[in-house]
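User: Sequence recovery, please. Input:
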């Protein structure tokens, strides 16, 4: 099940954090037929209510959140931390977990003070299987086919597994009775996860199976070297043609204006939305319109074909790993990079004040309203192996602890480690990682990819960047375009989703790189439609009507 173009490759240490945010629902993008599985559709079934949303009491932010999705911003770290849990979740039980990693393989808990401290705080012995991003599809195909499952599985970062919805329905715990409606209040930190994140993971046959790891509304983002771009004439919101001119003039020997990895494919989805395209799928008036057949998408292809031909992109962008493009951005070889919004903090740490980090607002395209790629609201879904109710409640208590909010003692331990060991405080009270903290942390021991708190905007030691990004969010929130496919079921995408997705990626890459002509896109698109894209559109439209 591994694909030729991985959505992410393994990240290392602080280079991690930018997992894809605009991935389709974890319960829709599956492959092969559903052997032995019944219907997973939400049509004609009773829908379990989403868990109640009960916001946690947290420290007052310096920069307020908005109902539109602007994150709460903290320019300083809270002076007083709260206690978010009343007791340890466990009493010495062993829990086997599997999750993706964007870091380096950790030392075992007996030699890893961060891992040991987390086990102690949780009151359990967590036994990790961490799978590098590039190997995740193949590993999960093996896990699904096997007899033994870990207790906790997170499927995230844009990945899916064979016959995923059927797999989850048949072998994972139905959490509806424990989490639906006011039942979630037994787990107050899970109740603090906003409704849109649960909706992103979706239901299966009307039931709730997955716990989401929330992510903010901005999805793929283009980070840039402010000084280098401004020296080439950049101004925010400039016309697309002028932006291309700036990119061309920002190039220098050994320096490239635009950086991209194999996972983002020239940041083509960001550019497509800036040209006015839908965010994958838009469903209105009973009809599902996909991004790839629109005039806006074809205009984007023409734009990136020319930009790539001019040499503005880093060479071999289709085969450059996320690790490598981040390293090249940090050291100034590439002057911008497309990645998930969660890459903001690692980028701030990685550049080490060598230049001013900033985030691009959309350029303007005449006659087209710019859209911004809205995330599905979550990084991934966490699923629990079927087990007796007492065991499931233990696992939910562990996830509840991991979801402790910013400003709590639990959050500080999971995100920064042990004070004096993994982080020290600067003069402004901000937690700053030690050299050990750059190795022993939530990236390399990925507790945060099992469950996590709703995100806030906090960049230790960088209050100016925090304020700039908060202001940027205020500008782009009105442009946010959701992916209407999120949380929906489609039999065609269950059976063929991975293959169909690869057809689009391969075709997009071939056109932008010049291996195929721009005039061939219509044929590529028709082939995708005939292979299942048209049928998926019909199914998504009906499913959307059933759940809205």
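Assistant: Recovered sequence (548 residues):
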């Amino acid at each position: 099940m591994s694909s030729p173009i991985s959505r992410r490759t393994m990240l290392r240490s602080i280079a991690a954090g930018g997992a894809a945010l605009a991935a389709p629902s974890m319960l829709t993008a599956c492959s092969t037929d559903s052997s032995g599985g019944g219907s997973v559709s939400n049509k004609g079934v009773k829908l379990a209510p989403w868990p109640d949303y009960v916001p946690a009491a947290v420290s007052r932010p310096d920069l307020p959140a908005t109902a539109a999705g602007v994150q709460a911003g903290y320019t300083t770290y809270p002076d007083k931390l709260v206690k978010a849990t009343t007791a340890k979740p466990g009493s010495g039980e062993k829990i086997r977990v599997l999750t993706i990693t964007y870091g380096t393989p950790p030392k075992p808990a007996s030699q890893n003070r961060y891992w040991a401290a987390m086990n102690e705080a949780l009151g359990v012995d967590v036994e990790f299987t961490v799978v590098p991003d590039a190997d995740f599809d193949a590993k999960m195909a093996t896990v699904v086919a096997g007899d033994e499952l870990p207790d906790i599985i997170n499927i995230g970062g844009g990945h899916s597994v064979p016959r995923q919805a059927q797999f989850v329905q048949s072998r994972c715990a139905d959490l509806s009775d424990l989490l639906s409606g006011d039942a979630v209040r037994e787990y107050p930190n899970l109740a603090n996860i906003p409704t849109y994140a649960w909706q992103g993971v979706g239901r299966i046959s009307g039931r709730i199976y997955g716990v989401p790891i929330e992510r903010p509304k901005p999805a793929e983002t283009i980070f840039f070297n402010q000084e280098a771009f401004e020296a080439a004439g950049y101004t925010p919101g400039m016309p697309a043609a002028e932006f291309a001119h700036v990119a061309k003039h920002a190039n220098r020997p050994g320096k490239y204006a635009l950086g991209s990895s194999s996972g983002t494919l020239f940041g083509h989805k960001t550019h497509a939305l800036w040209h006015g395209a839908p965010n994958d799928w838009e469903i209105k008036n009973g009809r599902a319109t996909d991004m790839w057949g629109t005039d806006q998408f074809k205009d984007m292809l023409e734009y990136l074909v020319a930009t790539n031909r001019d040499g503005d992109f880093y060479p071999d962008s289709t085969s450059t790993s996320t690790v490598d493009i981040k390293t090249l951005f940090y050291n100034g070889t590439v002057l911008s990079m497309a990645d998930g919004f969660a890459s903001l903090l690692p980028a701030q740490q990685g550049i080490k004040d060598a230049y001013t980090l900033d985030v691009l607002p959309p350029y303007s395209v005449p006659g087209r309203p710019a859209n911004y790629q809205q995330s599905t609201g979550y990084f991934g879904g966490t699923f629990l192996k079927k087990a007796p109710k007492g065991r499931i409640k233990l696992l939910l208590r562990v996830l509840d602890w991991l979801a402790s909010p910013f400003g709590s003692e639990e959050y500080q331990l999971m995100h920064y480690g042990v004070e004096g060991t993994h982080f020290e405080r600067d003069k402004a009270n901000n937690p700053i990682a030690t050299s050990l903290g750059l190795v022993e942390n939530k990236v390399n021991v990925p507790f945060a990819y099992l469950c996590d708190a709703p995100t806030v905007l906090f960049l230790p030691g960088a209050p100016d960047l925090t304020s700039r990004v908060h202001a940027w969010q205020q500008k782009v929130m009105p442009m946010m375009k959701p992916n209407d496919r999120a949380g929906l079921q489609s039999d065609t995408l269950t059976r063929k989703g991975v293959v169909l997705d690869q057809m689009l990626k391969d075709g997009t890459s071939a056109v932008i790189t010049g291996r195929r002509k721009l005039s061939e896109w219509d044929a590529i698109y028709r082939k995708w439609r005939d292979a299942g894209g048209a049928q998926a559109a019909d199914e998504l439209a009906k499913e959307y009507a059933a759940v809205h």
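The two ends are 33 Å apart (CA to CA).
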